[in-house]
Amino acid sequence: MNLTRTAIKSIARAFSKDEDGATAIEYGLFAALVGAVIVATVASLGQETNKGFQAMETALKEQNSSS
Question: Is the entire prediction scored with pTM above 0.85?
Answer without folding.
Answer: no
